[in-house]
From TrEMBL:
PANTHER family: PROTEASE PRSW. The keyword Protease applies. This is PrsW family intramembrane metalloprotease. GO terms for biological process: proteolysis. The keyword Membrane applies. It comes from Nocardioides guangzhouensis. Keywords: Hydrolase, Membrane, Metalloprotease, Protease, Transmembrane, Transmembrane helix.
Length: 375
């Protein structure tokens, strides 16, 4: 049976290859949006919100950090694959159905863009569902895809604003600055927010006992994502654009705040899930009960790693990281077992985590404990 890490590498390699192919036409589209100076300037401005947004999602993902390769793959999917597929679908729809600009903005764009972004989450659900433990994971992966998509889209919008080809003004640095404030400062969360609804649906599907819910939840999440996106886009058509600010203040900000609270609540809920699952696992003899605080409490986890590095050097730190990571993954898997939603390969995966823990445990010692450490 291939290891989860090897399967993650294969998944990341395949999806990254697709993204690399999609990056070529996207690069051509960006290059055609303006001269070299314009594109570079637009890309630099579009890059500004990326770092803070990624940092926020990594903060949410601290209990069981998702594989960095998959998170980067999600960013690449959003930036290249989802963007390219959306452009192609919208272009074909315009040629075949003859959509007006209003229809394309308020209907076609939300449907196609949320579908192409959500496709990455569907691939995870089908191919790498073992990496999804619940709603928070769905939000994190959705956020990465949304950030990547927004980055590429912002380059195009910013370049058009600078060139004066967006129909909003004569162009230049003032128009670029206005678009930057509107898209990169005031609403950088838009695309991650929309796709989060699909991510929530995928997270619900992973943890549900009901087969109907497992099928319907991702689809309903996608539908809500489309509705939110359509409302956002349509608001720019109301009252000569003034409706955008009303929808922004009355609808989008409260929705964003609500989803933020949901994500933070889900993060704190993970601590309770881990505590309960590891306590039950300890009763079954899978790990020492006294280890649990150093696995669940984020501050204690960090201090344990510092202790391991001081007393065991790089090897001791590596052993501690391996033990903590395997224990957390075991906890989420054991929680699903206790809920009756364990995957079919539950026993093999669980035994693999236990084996990793047992291999590392003799070489680590927690602060305040006495044990063997690497020298």
């Amino acid at each position: 049976m291939p290891s989860p890490r090897n399967e993650n590498v294969v998944f990341a390699a395949v999806v990254s290859s697709i993204a690399a192919v999609a990056a070529v036409p996207i690069a051509l589209v960006i290059a055609l949006s303006g001269g070299g100076t314009t594109v570079v300037l637009a890309a630099l401005f579009a890059l500004v919100p990326v770092g803070p947004l990624v940092a926020c999602y990594l903060w949410l993902d601290r209990y069981e950090p998702e594989p960095r390769s998959l998170l980067v793959t999600g960013l690449a999917w959003g930036a290249f694959v989802a963007t390219l597929l959306a452009l192609v679908l919208q272009g074909l729809g315009g040629l075949v159905a003859g959509f007006t600009d209003t229809e394309r903005l308020s209907l076609v764009a939300p449907i196609t863009e949320e579908a192409t972004k959500g496709l990455f989450l569907v691939l995870l659900l089908v191919w790498r569902r073992n990496e999804l433990d619940g709603v928070l994971d769905g939000i994190v992966y959705a956020g990465m895809v949304g950030i990547g998509f927004a980055f590429t889209e912002n380059i195009l919008y910013l370049a058009a604003a600078y060139n004066g080809t967006d129909g909003a003004g004569p162009g230049g640095i003032e128009e670029l600055g206005f678009t930057f404030v509107l898209r990169c400062i005031a609403s950088p969360f838009a695309h991650p927010l929309f796709t989060a609804f699909t991510g929530i649906g995928v997270g619900i599907a992973i943890t549900s006992r009901s087969r109907v819910v497992r099928v319907l939840a991702p689809f309903l999440g996608y539908c809500v994502a489309v509705l939110a996106h359509a409302l956002w886009n349509s608001s720019t058509l109301l009252a000569d654009g003034a409706g955008f600010f009303a929808v922004y203040a009355i609808v989008m900000v409260p929705v964003f705040v609500t989803l933020t609270f949901l994500a933070v609540w889900a993060r704190s809920r993970e601590a309770r899930i881990l505590q309960g699952a590891l306590a039950d696992a300890a009763l079954r003899g899978l790990l020492p009960y006294d280890d649990i605080p150093h696995l669940v409490n984020l501050g204690a986890r960090r201090r344990a790693r510092q202790f391991a590095r001081v007393h065991g050097g790089p090897d001791g730190l590596a052993a501690m990281r391996s033990y903590q990571q395997a224990a957390i993954e075991l906890a989420f898997l054991h929680h699903r077992f206790l809920r009756g939603t364990a995957p079919r390969n539950f026993s093999a995966r669980g035994q693999g985590f236990v084996d990793r823990m047992q291999a590392a445990r003799p070489y680590i010692s927690f602060p305040g404990a006495h044990g063997r450490v690497l020298r």
